[in-house]
Each structure stands twice: as C-alpha cells, then as structure tokens.
Amino acid sequence: MATSSVGPGFLTQTTVFTQQLAASFAFVILISLILDVFAQVNVWRIIAVSGLRGHEIANKVFPGLGILLSVFIVIGGLAFNIGNVAGAGLGLNAMLGINPIAGSIISAIFAIMIFLIKEAGKVMDKITQIAGGVMIILMLYVAFTTSPPVGEALINTVKPETIDIFAIVTLVGGSVGGYITFAGGHRLLDAGIKGVESLPEVTKSSVIGIGVAGILRIALFLAVLGVVTQGLTIDPANPPASVFQLAAGDIGYRIFGVIMWAAAITSVVGAAYTSVSFIRSFHPMIDKYHNYIIILFIVISSATFAFVGQPVSVLILAGALNALILPLALGTILIGAYKKDVVGDYKHPLWLTITGAIVAIGMGYLAILTVMEQIPKLLG
User: Could you give all domains of the chain from N- to C-terminal order, each with its CATH number?
Assistant: First the structure.
C-alpha cells in the first residue's frame, strides 16, 4: 500500500505544493495523514472481518454497486498506471541515461516478470519492501543535504501561514484514494490474513503503511523546502528531478532516478494487482488466470504511454479525481460494517464509524469543489 501510493504523482504533487506553500505544507501533510489513517483503518478492518473484497462488500450493500465501484477503480488504476509506466521510463533515463520510452518498456517487462513467477505474491511483497527501504534512505539523505528550516516547518505544522484545501484533497486522494485504499486490504486477504482474530495485526499494518508513506512525504517535503528557502529555481517541466539536482548535483539527479524508478515500478505493480483484484470474482476464468490479466493490464498501460503524455498538471489533478472515489468506497464499507451478511456478529467501534463518516462526507464535498474549480484551469 505504501509503495503503491508513492509514485510519480506523489513525487510531483509533493514538490509542487511545497514550492507553492513552503513551510505551510507541513500542516497539509499532518491533516492528510490523520484523514488517511481514519479512512484506511476502517476499510482494512471490514475487509479482514468479512473476508470479502471491496466490490463484494459493495454488492451486498446494494446490488450492482460493486460493479460500479470496480469500473471506477479499474479506470482510475489504468489512468494512474500510464503515468506510473512513464515515470519508470523517466527514472531509468535519469539513473542510466536510457531513452524514456525504452526505459518504460524495460520497466514494464520487469513488472511482468514478477507475475510470471509461481510465487508472485511473495516476490511482489519482497520487492516493494526493498524498494520502500531504498527510497526512505535516499530521500532522507537528500533532505539532509538541503539543510531545510526544520523549526519553521514544525511551527507551521500546527500554526500554518496558509491553508490550502486543494492540497489536502489531492494528498488524501493520492494516498488512500481510488485503488490504493484497497491495495493492502486485498493483499492481506490473498495472504490468508482475515477474520476477527487478525484485527490487531490488520490495524497495525494499515497504520504502518500510512506511516511509511508519511515518512517519504515528509523527507521529500524537507528536501524541497531546503531548495526553496535557498531561493533556487525549480524547473516546472520536471519539478522533483530539478530538486534533487539542485540539492546534490549530478549525484542528486542519479538518486532521483533511483527513487523515481522504485516509486514508479512499485506503483505499476500495485495498481495492476489491485485493479484486477476487483474483477477476479466476476468470472471463474478471470480468477484462474488473474496473473495473466494483470500482465495484460500492464501491457495496455505501457502501450498507451506511447500516445499519452504526462503533464505535471494532470498528475496533480489525478490525485483530486481519485479523492472522488474515496467517499463512495469508504461510505459503502461503513454501511457494510453494520450488515450481518457482511460482518456477522462483529461490532465495529463507534469512534471508527464516526471518524470514517466525517472523512467520507468531508472528502466528498471538498473533492467535488476542488475538481470543479481545477478542471476549468486545466482546460483554459
């Protein structure tokens, strides 16, 4: 889940918003992390207790709702994966000087190889864990080299000079919106971790997942903040790459390549795996050959990259659009938490229901407002 949420869009969004809001972005990170935890703990716990995937719960809440949710998730996952494949190509380009299109093809082949291995799930888990560790170490190193004003960031965490609702919506959408909400929950089901007895482990895992993504977000924020406060100019064509290059020269640019590739390839794998998990129960043949359908999903994403660009503004808006799926998904899960044919005799904690409902309603309202506000800007 953590590495699925940390993709090219994550890197771009964090860089752009830090450039715009400076130290005030610390407040945005804090609020988004709190909302992320409430959303994800609710979703993962109900998935674990019920032993059902998100769309199966939705169908029990209202017949046909699971199909609608699956369509949104798959379309959103495919759209994000086009950007992820492109990001992987850009990562190899920065790391090794490989042509971005050739790099994206090489990366797609690497991702496909994971799902051709018999123990694909275990291999996927191990690769994403290693990639996450590498990203944290490199990101913290670059943050340290820029000497950011940590004290100012800490003050703005609780007393911001500027509050940007669009930034909060985008970050939450990029962290737990769309398919990402279900990435870890579905993976736990496939690993056999389910039932009431697994709830302590499930809750801990969901919080750790948000925590890992949060550490990466904070490290990148500090790195960008250090560059911004020095008065250096960030290249709008590729903001995160520009930050790393300004922070540590050519070595920094190579480090960016490693981080971008690791972030993109784990997101390619996570988006494809989770998106296909939403249609596995549609037909026995899909379930039987789901690994090959995941491969097809990656192939389609890679092929589409040849015709679709990766503008920074679209990556940022994608997070907000993903946030529109969150209220539907979370709201459905919360209703399912009180249906006996979903959770049996399990009693969902009232405080989780209330906080989850606040996130679902609040994010729904804010996401609609911000998307309606941003679309004319993109089209204009």
Answer: 2-379 (1.20.1740.10)
